[in-house]
Amino acid sequence: MGVKGAGVRMQRGKRTIIRVFPGFDLFRYSFYVTGLRQAFPGARFVLTTRGFPDFHQHCLAFEVLEERSLKVYISAGDGPGYNENGLEWADVYAKRTLLEERVPEEYSANIIPMGPHFGVRVWGYLRSLIHGLHALLAAGGSIDSPRRHLVNCIRQVRSRLPEDQFQPAPSRDDYVFYSSTLYPTHPNYNRYRANFIRACRSVEDLAFEGGLSRTDGLSIEEYKDVTTISRYRIGEWWSKTQLSLVGFWAPGDQGAMTLKLGEYLAAGKVIIGLPVPHGMLPAPLLDRVHMIEVDGEISSIRNALQEIRHDTSLRRRIERNARDYYEEYLTPRRAIERFVGEARRRVSHR
């Protein structure tokens, strides 16, 4: 792992060493790999299994070697469950889908909300491939599918943009773009997103583009009217998202913190969405401050669209607040600083 960017506290006169469990999925954890590189300039990153339990590939675990080591485990999976080895090992366990009723009581002091994130491009093709090969060697055969591991290293180049391209841009008040995947087994997630699309189409003089996308022929009768076979290249998708009047958010399968929330906050976009549980966030997203809350029904969504179209002052204020929230809590660097800072605080109080 190469290192560039600005920093967290460093050891005086010493080069910080950070040990990283090598089996992580670069496609899924690219946001936080970017954060590590930005938060620790000049650090020496060591991919190694030494000192780590037998973790699976669905985590990013690292140890910052200071006067006292700081152990951070990041879990970006959709589900609300926990990895027992991660709970026992980590000083801080940062959890994406953090549902309060599922938090193990004996480890609750070490579990914190990861907050929204999204996929980004860390390196180009050559550097990503070199990283993938290096990780395979460091893992010593513990990675379940070496082929999938390398493919995911390349996917984050082909299917992602660098984080610094996720910036606000002027939006249109007569256009909404929303493209997402139609899932065969996520009934509530499908329903809320379909309601958003139908609400947009019902508003006079508001052009809608997108839909719930499937390219494999899957068809669900109740969503045929909002299903599309259109796919967008990553650059086109992002430019259309920036132009869109609003974004929409609803919890994913098992209450998951879906990626669109982070993308919309980075874009400084007005988010129309269901309330986000405060326990899943580093700080609350407030109704009419950072977003517009709705109940997920068409009439509620339509009313929110009409208000945002006609109240320019409210729209601009929410756009500014959304981007400010992202910069204060969620950028890759700030997220890593939160995790490491919390680990340092908890270790110092032992």
Give a quick rundown of the structure.
By secondary structure, this protein is an alpha/beta fold.
Work out the count of structural domains: 2
Strand order of the largest sheet: 2-1-3-4-5-6
CATH uppermost class of the largest domain: Alpha Beta
CATH superfamily of the largest domain: Glycogen Phosphorylase B
* Mass-distribution shape: globular
Number of helices: 10
Structural class: alpha/beta
Low-confidence segments, given as residue ranges, are 2-8
Q: Radius of gyration from the CA trace?
A: 21 Å
SSE string = EHEEEHEEHHEHEEHEHEEHHH
Write structural notes for this entry.
This protein has 350 residues and is of the alpha/beta class. The protein folds into 2 domains: 165 residues, no CATH class; 166 residues, Glycogen Phosphorylase B (Rossmann fold), CATH 3.40.50.2000. The protein is built from 10 helices and 12 strands. The strands form 3 sheets. A 6-stranded mixed sheet has the order 2-1-3-4-5-6. The protein has a 3-stranded parallel sheet with strand order 7-8-9. The radius of gyration is 21 Å and the shape is globular. It starts with 16 loop residues before the first strand and ends with a helix. The N terminus is likely disordered.
